[in-house]
Amino acid sequence: MNRTLSRLTVMAATAAACAMSSVAQANPQLVDASLADPTRQYMPSELIVQFKPGLRLDKAQQAMRGLGLSSLKTLRSMARGAHAELHLVKLPANFKVPEAIQWLRAHDAIDFAEPNWIVSTQAAPADPYYTNGSLWGYYGDTSPTQQNQYGSQAGEAFDAGKKCKKGVVIGVIDEGVMNTHPDTKAGIWQNPVEIAGNGIDDDGNGYVDDVNGWDFRNNDKTTFDGTTDDHGTHVSGTIGARANKQGIIGVCPTVKMISAKFLEGSGTTANAILAVDYVTDLKQRHDLNLVATNNSWGGGGFSQGLKDAIDRAGAADILFVAAAGNSGLNTDVSPNYPSGYTSANIIAVASITSSGSLSGFSNYGATSVDIGAPGSSIWSTVPTSTGAGYANYSGTSMATPHVTGAAAFYASRHPGQTAAQIKAAILAAAVPTPSLAGKCVTGGRLDVSGF
Ligand code: CA
Predict the structure, then answer these.
(1) Which ranges of 40-121 does DSSP label H, i.e. alpha helix?
(2) Which segments of 161-263 are extended strands (E)?
(3) Do 378 and 398 contact (CB within 8 A), yes or no?
(4) Which of 53, 71, 288, 331 has the CB geometry, 3.0–4.6 Å to 84, for a possible disulfide?
């Protein structure tokens, strides 16, 4: 151990001399700013490391051995078409993450090194006495049976005959999605190529028997593991619960949803990168009309590795709809990730209440948040100890799937639109709202009635 420690120290010292001539790391100052904030948590003895573009795996492994590092997981591989090796690595015992990052940055084999941040779901506690049936986030101001001007207006569009059409796919990057819930089971995506249970990676994407998606948290094909998957099931209901005369209805009740599970309450940046890339690859591999992923999670600090994955999704015309976060902060000043990355395909979503206020827990930001949507006291689907049920949750986690559903809704009615066009349409339709004025890019709330 001591030998490894000193060797790493010496190597860092010699490498420092040539650091000036190496390619600059993309955003080391943002990683450092995140590390300086003690509220941002990371895995204590892990790092995400990208090797220099073009440096082959055997050379990367050689460099890791020389530095006393071992690869825990391959996140991106040149053998599978990536431009650089990206690995989750284990640090030698007693090595601290911030100092290891400083040393590794100076090594000429390394493009960037950053913490494996811990992220979490963005649901806040809800009032258990809220009256069931008040699906206010779905309502519009002229819906026949129930009205709420601050709802997403999906109900108003539905009643006017503007219905979500079939054929759109969404990625739910979250906890698992309950695949037997009567309100969402028809919305669970089926891999068109993968044959269930044959033990073969039929579609060649690196994941065996990924029939409904993949569980990156437990590294298996089972995307639903029980009542711990309540948050993922809740957001899926808001996006796409069926119009089936029971329970609730989602913003786009004909959508299909891929479960890319990497959370059980919390998760890590490394698994988030795998989940984002998995959905992007599925779109391209199976030529899916996949227009967005829902990302009701956040926390941790800046990750170049995750931002790069979001940018790859953007290049594949996939919107990344992200929760603004639940700290009640101005994220122009205190950045929230992933909603705060500058990637053009992100829509960052704040939460409003049924009376049009900014929810007390909701982050906001004139430049870092795009739009408000219903997020306080939202009824949706959950697994219970006795089967399928419904529950009332609050959070920017709940606001985000209203916007993701809106992206699916718009895409279904306007085929062939790019991610940029869908985003522009959603933001242009926002209704100016006093509580959001100066608090987000649009200064307004979601309104799908014109889609
Ligand atoms: Ca597969």
Answers:
(1) 57-66, 97-105
(2) 169-174, 213-215, 256-261
(3) yes
(4) 53
What spacing in Å lies between the alpha carbon of 208 and ligand 1's midpoint? 5
State the pLDDT at residue 15: 35
pLDDT (0 to 100) of residue 17: 32
Q: Is the pTM of this model over 0.85?
A: yes
Q: How far is the CA of 205 from the centre of ligand 1 (A)?
A: 5
Please give the share of the chain, as a percent, with pLDDT higher than 90: 80
> What pLDDT score was predicted for residue 18?
33
- Intra-chain end-to-end CA distance of the chain, in Å: 62
Report how far residue 205's alpha carbon sits from residue 222's, in angstroms, rounded to the nearest whole number: 16
Cα separation, 249 vs 321, whole angstroms: 20
Confidence of residue 158 (pLDDT cuts 50, 70, 90): confident
- pLDDT, one tens digit per residue, over 273-286 is 999 999 999 999 99
- Quote the tokens at residue 215: 């569980």
CA separation for the pair 393, 296 (Å, rounded): 13
Residue (of 366, 378, 383, 437) closest to 403 by Cα position: 378
Task: Spot the catalytic one: 397, 412, 435, 449.
Answer: 397
Cis peptide before 401 (omega within 30 of 0): no
| Residue in the structure block whose two tokens are 């437990």 | 218
- Please compute the mean of the pLDDT values over residues 208-212 and round it to a whole number: 98
Residue 247, beta-bridge partner list: none
Question: Cα(133) to centroid of ligand 1, in Å?
Answer: 39
Q: Is the dihedral of CA 201, 206, 208, 209 positive or negative?
A: negative
Gap from CA of 221 to ligand 1 centroid (Å):
9
pLDDT (mean) for 170-183: 97
Q: Which of 107, 143, 174, 277 is catalytic?
A: 174
Whether 174 sits among the annotated catalytic residues: the reply is yes
Please tell me the distance from the alpha carbon of residue 348 to that of residue 325, in angstroms, as a whole number: 9
- So what's the pLDDT on residue 22? 38
Catalytic residue among 107, 231, 234, 402: 231
User: Cα of 259 to ligand 1 centre, how many Å?
Assistant: 14
Catalytic residue status for 234: no
Ligand 1 mean position, distance from CA 215 (Å): 12
Percentage helix, strand, coil for the chain under 3-state DSSP, each rounded to 5: 30, 25, 45
Residue 384 tokens, joined = 């219970």
By the CB criterion, residues less than 5 angstroms from ion ligand 1 are 194, 201, 203, 205, 207, 210
